[in-house]
Design goal:
The protein has 7 helices and 13 strands. The chain has helices at about 1-5, 10-20, 35-55, 60-75, 80-85, 90-95, 205-215, and strands at about 115-120, 120-125, 135-145, 155-160, 180, 190-195, 200, 220, 225-230, 235-240, 265, 275, 280. The strands form 3 sheets. Strands 2, 3, 6, 11, 12 and 13 form a 6-stranded mixed sheet that branches. The longest helix has 22 residues, at about 35-55. The protein is globular, with a radius of gyration of 20 Å. The site of 3-methylcatechol has 11 residues, from helix 5. Its EC number is 1.13.11.1.
Length: about 280
């Protein structure tokens, strides 16, 4: 829609910053990290910066460019976007290195908790004229080893066919293409949705300016975001991808894994596509 094409970096940035701030104060502030860890980590990061400056003989012009850019990231509300695109994938790698079940991937900046609950055979909330190829996404949640998990929770959120997320771009209904699906007594779910478009980092904000200045590209491949959980199991945050997307190989957020590639088939119903992906949860 016209509203969507007028989405601005400042809108999604301000939204993502406010959403993240509502999460801090719940065990995610500097006071929740021990002084020993703060000292070690801050010292090592600063030393790496100092080493880079010496190695490349960074000039005052470059130092001032950095200062101006860092200030603008905050002004644009793009710290969540910057960190989730260029840093989170390594945090995820470390956090989930011992898991045996489904591979994780980054959460990114656009998750919203408490999306409306839907029964196991669900259709995600969408506009009457929502554009895009229909997709039936189905599967089963089991524990590692294969035991089905009745009533497992499958939270899903995704961009629309223009690459925009509800609550982070203007003119989209609040819970569009977001839902909390409760699996049936065998842990199975079937979710009617639409194939999302690839996502382009806003070009008019600080992250876009960095991308342009460095000669990078601004794209993530099309993806579905998921959080799958059940009592007694570890919640997994992950993403699923579509074969053939040109950006599966060069995701700006480095968040694609081969295990997270969907197998897309023409729908048996004849309308759009279908795909099956099963989740295996590690014990808590
Ligand atoms: C996204 O949709 C996303 O998933 C990430 C990680 C960063 C920016 C936009
Ligand atoms: Fe995303």
């Amino acid at each position: 829609t016209d509203d969507e094409t007028q989405a601005r970096a400042a809108d999604s940035g301000a939204g993502a910053t406010a959403a993240f701030q509502s999460k801090t104060g719940q065990g995610a502030g500097l006071e929740d990290v021990t002084p020993e860890r703060v000292n070690t980590l801050a010292t090592e990061v600063l030393t790496a910066v100092h080493d880079t400056i010496r190695k490349h003989k960074v000039t005052y012009a470059e130092y001032d460019a950095l200062k101006a850019w860092l200030i603008s990231v905050g002004e644009d509300g793009e710290w969540p976007l910057f960190l989730d695109v260029w840093v989170e994938h390594v945090v995820e790698e470390v956090a989930n290195e011992d898991r045996e079940g489904t591979k994780g991937s980054i959460e990114g900046p656009y998750y919203v908790p408490n999306a409306p609950e839907l029964a196991a055979d669900a259709t995600l909330p969408m506009r009457e004229d929502e554009s895009g190829t229909a997709l039936t996404f189905q599967g089963q949640v089991t524990a590692v080893g294969g035991a089905p998990i009745p009533g497992a929770k499958v939270e899903i959120w995704q961009a629309d066919a223009q690459g925009f997320y509800s609550q982070y771009a203007p003119g989209i209904p609040e819970w569009n293409l977001r839902g909390t699906v409760i699996a049936d007594e065998q842990g199975r779910y079937q979710i009617g949705t639409l194939q999302p478009a690839p996502y382009q980092i806003p070009t008019d904000g600080s992250c876009g300016k960095l991308i342009a200045a460095a000669g990078w590209h601004a794209w993530r491949p099309a993806h579905l975001h998921l959080k799958v959980s059940a009592p007694g199991c570890q919640l997994i945050t992950t993403q699923l991808y579509f074969p053939g997307d040109p950006h599966n190989e060069d995701d700006i957020a480095s968040a694609v894994k081969p295990e997270l590639m969907l197998d897309i088939q023409p729908a048996e119903s004849g309308e759009g596509n279908q795909t099956t992906y099963n989740f295996e949860l590690d014990p808590a």
